[in-house]
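Researcher: Please predict.
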Amino acid sequence: MDWGTLQTVLGGVNKHSTSIGKIWLTVLFIFRIMILVVAAERVWGDEQQDFICNTLQPGCRNVCYDHFFPISHIRLWALQLIFVSTPALLVAMHVAYTRHEKKRRFRNGEKIDIEELKNEKIHIRGPLWWTYTSSIFFRIVFEAVFMYVFYYMYDGYQMPRLVKCDAWPCPNTVDCFVSRPTEKTTFTIFMLAVSGICMVLNLAELCYLVIKICMRESRKTTVLK
């Protein structure tokens, strides 16, 4: 997966984000995407190869591994990052559309400084406010859903040292051993903790935007009176 392309796209959104949004994007790239790319592959690279069961029955080890680990942690984290990052692309599309409309008015004769337009920071207000807050809301939902999926799919966040499997074609209940369970548990908790921090940042940014728009509307009402 080309994470550099995603970074380029979200980097454009970063210019129009709030200060909290900039912090969220920094945490996303440094503590999630970079950690996933640099370290996760080494931690989980041997997960199926070193999943050892005390039987030589053909197919037993593969069936047991598929039963206890239906989806690789790495792939599930990659899927989570894609879902969490996608709402931010809606903001990028909205900003691009706004600039396109201004360029269209320029072509129709309206005086607009093109160079200033390229470097202009579009403020979060009007329709963009709804797009931005909606993207934050969906990010929070996706983070919560994936944290629940991790808990439900792997029966908790702790990697077991030993699992007992009696699935067919195993001849009886066999013991299967997971490689480096402590390291994988630590890594899993770290990734979930960072995901929780991102949720807190998203909630803080959402509250900030709602309070800001309420204060702005309150000032307008006071001026009209």
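Model: The beta strands are 52-53, 162-165, 174-177.
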